[in-house]
């Protein structure tokens, strides 16, 4: 089980199939596998900061393309977009 309930990259709820990584002795969960790639690209300092202050769901998604992963519909913040 993940120690966090909010994805540290996107700010969405952690999902069962979003993937997990170990960080600082804790299991960190994500909303989708694409976020793990972004997580792995961060420095340890930035990872810790993202855990303390994850982005809000209403915030910017940056260059993360939700069309690249299976959980697109799970995010629920794409009104008017087609999958």
Briefly characterize the structure.
The protein has helices at 33-41, 44-52; strands spanning 20-23, 26-29.
Proportion of helical residues? 10-25%
Kindly name the structural category.
alpha+beta
Strand content: 5-15%
Number of helix segments? 2
- Using only CA atoms, what is the Rg? 12 Å
- Whole-Å distance between the termini? 29 Å
Q: How many strands in all? A: 2
Low-pLDDT segments: 59-63, 72-83
- Mean pLDDT across the residues is 80
Largest sheet: 2 strands, antiparallel
**General shape:** globular
What is the string of helix and strand elements?
EEHH
Order of the strands making up the biggest sheet: 1-2
Q: What labels would you give this structure?
A:
disordered C terminus, single chain, 83 residues, alpha+beta
Topology, please?
Elements: E1 20-23, E2 26-29, H1 33-41, H2 44-52
Antiparallel strand pairs: 1-2
Question: Explain this structure to me?
Answer:
With 83 residues, the protein is of the alpha+beta class. 22% of the residues lie in helices and 10% in strands. The chain has 2 helices and 2 strands. Strands 1-2 form a two-stranded antiparallel sheet. The radius of gyration is 12 Å and the shape is globular. The model is unreliable at 59-63 and 72-83 (pLDDT under 50).
